[in-house]
Design goal:
The protein is 45% helix and 8% strand. With 342 residues, the chain is an alpha/beta fold. The chain starts with a helix and ends with a helix. One of its GO terms (cellular component) is membrane.
Length: 342
């Protein structure tokens, strides 16, 4: 471990939390690490996570929440706080900001986060818009498969798709393996038309990307786009200005070249639809996992929350999470960008 990495635990805002001054780490949920030895080593190397300091670091973040954000209505359990520490490589200040952003995002977009539970999204799940492949990639990343062509806009608004994505991410991040390994996104844009793409305007794009980059404790290791039509150039033109350079560099456009995809995602983990050998794409298994988690989501997302001001007052929402309606988010403005691709 480098001196720079160790210094993350003694940043100015946490300087007073020295080893001798900290109270004994508490474990209200009886945290027990489920990581394998290999993943413990990976977390140490990539995330600056020291097993011998883990509970001390969690206690430090817990104390910062109580001191700096006393009105933040959040879980302080070890397992929950660890998600944010891992996502920000155990930098206390950045982990705290991510935690505040996480709650700010949820309060600032009620159309997405209110009543967020699997049973409320059965139509989206049954459509096959998204699923998680049964096998992880060679790095241990779960593969989230998105198929926008399965969405029929006349059936329900695009925010229902976003709700389903967030629901899936919440379920995935419960796993410590996912917290360490991250996820990969496989997006199939086959058959996406101009009219359908128009629903994903700058306002929604900015909000979604703001959540994924700055408001959710998950590591997106790669985004593989296949079967993208020319219209995708317009979609990506809408998205790219809001992407951080690191994330933008993790986008890979394969077109219809499945051999290119297979250099990143091996055939043995992919369904036949993508030139793989893992059988037909099955959405039922992941849908069952989500629907079996109904009670967990009801407890987390379907209870009365504190007033928005008590949370949003802690910090400004991530860029793009303002609730103000944008002046340029009209269908005409979006279509003009997309038509330029032809």
């Amino acid at each position: 471990m480098s001196e720079e990495s160790d210094s993350l635990r003694t940043s100015p805002s946490a300087a007073s939390l020295s080893e001798n001054e900290l109270p004994p780490p508490s474990a209200p949920a009886g945290y027990v690490c489920s990581l394998t030895e290999d993943l413990v080593a990976k977390a140490r190397e990539e995330l600056q996570e020291k097993p011998e300091w883990r509970l001390r670091d969690v206690q430090a973040l817990r104390d910062m929440v109580r001191k700096e954000c006393p009105n933040l209505s959040t879980s302080l359990e070890d397992a929950f706080l660890l998600r944010f520490l891992r996502a920000r490589k155990f930098d206390y200040d950045r982990a705290l900001q991510l935690l505040v952003n996480y709650h700010s995002c949820r309060r600032s977009w009620p159309e997405v986060f209110n009543n967020l539970r699997p049973s409320a999204l059965k139509e989206v799940l049954a459509s096959g818009f998204l699923t998680v492949l049964p096998h992880t990639d060679p790095r241990g990343c779960h593969v989230l498969c998105l198929r926008p062509d399965r969405w029929i806009p006349s059936n329900y608004p695009i925010t229902e798709n976003i709700r389903a994505i967030y629901l899936t991410l919440e379920k995935l991040i419960q796993s410590e393996e996912t917290q360490v390994n991250g996820i990969v996104i496989l997006a199939d844009y086959k058959g996406v038309s101009l009219s359908k793409a128009s629903h994903f305007g700058p306002f929604i794009a900015k909000k979604v990307i703001g959540i994924l980059q700055d408001g959710f404790p998950i590591r997106i290791k790669a985004v593989h786009v296949v079967n993208e039509p020319r219209i995708f150039k317009g979609i990506f033109a809408i998205i790219k200005p809001f992407l951080k350079e690191k994330i933008a560099n993790r986008f890979f456009l394969h077109g219809s070249d499945l051999n290119s995809l297979h250099t990143n995602l091996p055939r043995n983990i992919l369904p036949r639809e993508y030139g793989g050998t893992a059988g037909e794409l099955d959405i039922t298994a992941w849908n069952a996992v989500l629907l079996a988690s109904e009670e967990d989501f009801v407890r987390e997302f379907c209870q009365p929350g504190p007033p928005c001001d008590s949370i949003l007052g802690q910090a400004l929402p991530p860029e793009g999470l303002s609730s103000e309606a944008p002046c340029d988010d009209s269908m005409r403005a979006v279509k003009s960008q997309l038509y330029s691709c032809y």
